[in-house]
Amino acid sequence: MIDLKSMLPEELASFFETLGEPAFRAKQVFTWLQKGVTSFDDMHNLPAALRRKLAERSYITAPQVARKQVSRLDGTVKYLWELRDGNCIETVLMRYHHGNTVCISSQVGCRMGCAFCASTVAGKVRDLTPSEMLDQVLFTQLDSGEEISNVVLMGIGEPLDNKENVLRFLELLNHPEGLRIGMRHVSLSTCGIVPQIDALAQLHLQLTLSVSLHAPDSPTRSDLMPVNRAYDVEELFNACHRYFQMTGRRISFEYAMIDGVNDHDWQADLIVQRLRGMPGHVNLIPLNEVAESPFKPSRRIRQFQKRLESQGVTATVRRSLGGDIDASCGQLRRKAMEEKGDAHGDLGNQ
Ligand code: SAH
After folding, report:
1. By the 8 A CB rule, do 252 and 210 touch?
2. Phi, psi (5° rounding) for residue 144?
3. Which of 101, 222, 233, 340 is the most buried (most CB within 10 A)?
4. For the chain, what percent of residues have pLDDT higher than 70?
């Protein structure tokens, strides 16, 4: 069976050719899919015979809302979606003054093993398809009735560990017949897979690259993030410098502030040193508590920020949204089918 919504328009056209159908039919179907239509029967402008043929050979992904939680603090919405194969992933809708941002997952689980993050606790099950990433944007927009202007790949999973599907998803997201969300409205966050950062640089995309830094020195970073043992922080910064040279795009660095681990003055100074020659922006994240992790939030965020800024590095403190529904950075997790019924904080499909 073919996953129609993961196909780019030209691929859809060749598929229709193999069915002996004219190219304009492929266009019609593409438009329906981008509108979030979930059944071939709703594609009114297709002949019944073609609808049947499509239903025999292909399918349309349509995640079900397994749970929807709304933050009482700030109106942030967290969706738990059940996918076609029963796996569940999470998506968060955040409302900012500059528009609505949706934070999407790129994998079912994660295999990067960062010590402070809930998304990786149960490991990775599989990559998400382009359609499953697009659906998170599409169905969040349809369910909430609110237009989405920005997409961040900062949910569950490591986008550069699923790069081909992510790139295809971005093409679909940008498409003029689809949601038309441009690259400038997309942020992609990575834990620092160096060869993939280099490969991404070659593409000259207008998106914002975010790098999860969390420590500027290798011993600390290796303790927190196993990826640092494969590509250490020095190699990572070299790749960031190359990325900036290739694309001219400023990189954003995420830094979750952990008490007594990565919040020392010397670490701020080392960040400044490593950023020399490149305009970087550091996003300081108050550490969110994760049950499985021993770490505590730092009490030195403002001092750390000042220390960076006084040396010419822009640093902002990320406002934490959706804390009461575990929708903040690092708190999203895949859920198995049996867990999803857990009624904690459940507001149903209101
Ligand atoms: N795998 C990608 C995408 C995830 S983005 C990446 O690592 O960048 C999610 C962001 O939240 C990452 O920067 C991650 O390091 C951060 N994060 C994870 N756990 C956190 C926690 N407990 N508190 C604050 N931020 C956390």
Report:
1. yes
2. -85, -20
3. 233
4. 96
Choice from 117, 211, 213, 289 to test ligand 1 binding pocket (greatest atom count within 8 A of CB)? 117
Among 21, 88, 90, 240, the active-site one is: 90
Paired residues of 95 in beta bridges: 100
Q: Is 117 a catalytic residue?
A: no
CATH architecture of 71-340: Alpha-Beta Barrel (3.20)
- Say which of 88, 103, 191, 329 is annotated catalytic: 329
Within 13 Å, how many C-alpha atoms sit on residue 10's CB side?
A: 2
Q: Per-domain residue ranges for the chain?
A: 2-59, 71-340
Residues 253, 248: Cα–Cα separation, whole Å? 16
pLDDT value for 337: 52
Reported as a pLDDT band with limits 50, 70 and 90, residue 205 is very high
Residues framing ligand 1 (Cβ under 6 A): 112, 114, 116-117, 154, 158, 189-191, 212, 254, 256, 285, 287-288, 290, 329-330
Residue nearest to atom 18 of ligand 1 (CA): 330
* Among protein residues, the one whose CA lies closest to atom 15 of ligand 1: 212
8 A C-beta contact, residue 308 and residue 267: no
Q: Please tell me the pTM assigned to this model.
A: 0.95
Q: List Cβ neighbours of 293 (8 Å cut-off, separation of 6 or more).
A: 115, 116, 117, 118
Burial of 246 (0-12, 13-18, 19+ CB in 10 A): middle
Both tokens of 3, joined, read: 């996953």
CA distance 90 to 155: 7
Fold category of 2-59 in CATH: DNA polymerase; domain 1 (1.10.150)
Instruction: Report how far residue 181's alpha carbon sits from residue 150's, in angstroms, rounded to the nearest whole number.
Output: 7
